[in-house]
Specification:
The complex is a heterodimer of chains A (about 325) and B (about 190).
Chain A (H helix, E strand, L loop, with lengths): L4 E3 L4 H8 L5 E4 L5 H6 L7 E4 L7 E3 L5 E4 L4 H5 L2 H6 L1 H8 L4 H6 L2 H6 L50 H6 L3 E6 L2 E6 H4 L19 E7 L5 E9 L7 E12 L2 E10 L6 E2 L1 H7 L6 H11 L11 H17 L6
Parallel strand pairs in A: 1-3, 2-3
Antiparallel strand pairs in A: 4-5, 5-8, 6-7, 6-8, 9-10, 10-11, 11-12
Chain B lengths: L3 E4 L2 E7 H8 L21 E10 L4 E12 L6 H20 L30 E7 L12 H4 L1 H13 L10 H12 L5
Parallel strand pairs in B: 4-5
Antiparallel strand pairs in B: 1-2, 3-4
Helix pairs in contact in B: 2-4
The chains are: A alpha+beta (about 325), B alpha+beta (about 190).
Chain lengths: ~325, ~190
């Protein structure tokens, strides 16, 4: 790891000022991803700016939603009574992140902004698109954990954040702050599909900008469900997972949001699955139809077709979870 | 005796344990034992039973119980012998379900050379393990180093076969293998 300077700002303004240097400065939350990247020489910042001291509270918004500070620890989100009541899928996702140690160190902002776990990106021997190179090694390589949606390239990573998926499903907005002021971006627009121009990033956050808050709107009359499929039962990345948020009209689904994780370079919203749910009664048959629809447009790579079946199951079971039905 | 070391046969010649230890100095005490003819045997056996669940919609296998009847002749130390069997069984669960050295086919580099991507069972992946050792002193001391790892993985694969009706012939039992085997069976099967 390259030696670096450490700045402990007192507030947002100081944090942003500290990010502006002649060299590379990066914000550090729990460090669960960044420190590992630094040890692996994937990133070698000159300065780290601690953002754990920024807002770490969950507060109610006037419209009946919640405003979550980026510095909130994942464990505190997982155990938050009000979040559990309004946004159960967020609590479910938070509770399945990593290990107890990671959840006690990791923050909401860090989870959303962590870099891909792709084993080529994480290995300094492979200079891939995301490391400034000119190819994606997953193409023609070992791609069993890579994308099955959004595979137009140039990069075929899956987005690693567990919290991003329910945040998109619940229609969250992210508050971003920089020297030129603050802006709010819908979670769905925050994450970016790779293009040759932006392949070095996974979102719209600028270099001298900080994600400070996740703002969740009042959930309304919804039922939500969440389901994650893991190879190992603990300390493993999900193979596929899904959050569904169903706006209900009696026992009929008026409209739905279906977002899949670990299957595409961004949290993947499935229009076909949403269409398959709208206007249908909430039952197991509808859940299965939503699963089938969700993967109707999947385009797996050479070694990950099995993930299509797993993604289908994750969608079906998330809907069953929303319906209060037993999944296995 | 009574915290003192005495010379055999002359009870007046003795030293406190602490004083005796002071005389040792920094040199280690090394004693070579002699092989006692007839005490050590060879040839070992064991039977392992596995109980597993297989989620046929995701291909995820979970081992829920292992019962190991393991032979090691004379049990010299029951606790460590059982512990050795537990360790061997957990290692076998790892190569049955998780361990896989994945080599990039283009460059020959290992892509999972770390504890994040090279999977090993965590606490939640380790099932209830019961070990029954048969004490047979008449057979002498027989090794129990590797034998407990030998049959567990096969037992797990056979349990999966009993659960889903398909034989999976390579390890680890990754969901891609399990799902492919189920698909193949649906399409007409291989055996």
């Amino acid at each position: 790891m390259k030696a670096f300077a450490y700045v402990n700002p007192a507030n947002e303004r100081e944090a942003i000022a500290a990010l502006k240097i002649d060299g590379i400065a990066m914000p550090i939350g729990g460090g669960q991803d960044l420190l590992a990247r630094m040890k692996d020489y994937i990133d070698s910042p000159d300065r780290l700016v601690n953002v754990k001291g920024l807002d770490a509270t969950v507060t109610a918004t006037p419209d009946g939603g919640l405003r979550i500070g980026s510095a909130v620890k994942i464990v505190d989100l997982a155990e938050h009574a009000q979040v559990a009541k309004l946004y159960p899928a967020v609590v479910h996702a938070a509770g399945e992140v990593g290990t107890p140690q990671i959840r006690h160190q990791g923050t909401v902002g860090g989870n959303v902004n962590q870099r891909p776990r792709c084993w080529y990106f994480r290995n300094e021997e492979f200079v891939c698109f995301k490391n400034g190179g000119s190819r994606c090694f997953a193409v023609g390589g070992e791609n069993q954990y890579h994308a099955i949606f959004g595979n137009n390239g140039p990069s075929h990573i899956v987005h690693p954040s567990s919290l991003a998926v329910p945040f998109v499903a619940y229609g969250a907005t992210f508050r971003l702050v920089s020297a030129s002021g603050e802006r709010e971006v819908a979670a769905a627009d925050y994450f970016t599909m790779p293009t040759m121009r932006n392949v070095l990033k996974e979102n719209v956050l600028e270099d001298e900008e900080i994600l400070t808050h996740v703002i969740l709107p009042a959930p309304g009359t919804v039922k939500s469900g969440h389901y994650e499929v893991r190879y190992k039962q603990s300390h493993d990345w999900p193979l596929a997972f899904t959050t569904v948020v169903l706006t209900m009209n009696g026992n009929t689904i008026a409209s739905a949001r279906v977002v899949l994780g670990a299957v595409a370079p961004v949290p993947w919203r499935s229009k076909p699955a949403e269409d398959a749910l709208a206007g249908k009664p909430l039952n197991e048959q509808t859940a299965a139809a939503a699963g089938d629809a969700a993967v109707s447009e999947a385009r797996p790579m050479s070694g990950n077709a099995y993930k299509v079946q797993i993604a289908k199951t994750a969608v079906k079971r998330a809907v069953m979870n929303a319906a209060g039905l037993k999944t296995v | 005796m009574g915290g003192r070391i005495r010379v055999k046969g002359s009870p007046t010649k003795s030293l406190a344990w602490k004083d005796a230890c002071k005389l040792i100095g920094t040199e280690p005490i090394s004693v070579d034992g002699q092989w006692q003819e007839g005490l050590s045997g060879s040839g070992t056996s064991g039977v392992h039973f596995a109980e597993a669940t297989c989620d046929i919609e995701t291909g995820i296998v979970k081992v829920t119980r292992i019962l190991a009847i393991q032979d090691c002749g004379l049990i010299v130390d029951k606790l460590t012998a059982e512990s050795q069997a537990h360790g061997g069984i957990i290692a076998a669960i790892n190569f049955a379900l998780f361990e896989d050295r994945i080599i990039d086919r283009m460059t020959g580099q290992m892509v999972n050379p770390n504890m994040e991507m090279y999977l090993l069972a965590g606490m939640s992946d380790v099932p209830k393990v019961e070990v029954i050792l048969n004490n047979m002193p008449e057979r002498g001391v027989i090794g129990i180093g590797e034998p407990p790892t030998v049959s567990t993985a096969s037992a797990i694969a056979n349990a999966v076969r009993n659960a889903i009706g398909v034989t999976i012939r390579s390890l680890p039992l990754h969901p891609h293998r399990v799902l492919a085997a189920i698909e193949q069976e649906k399409a007409g099967g291989t055996n």
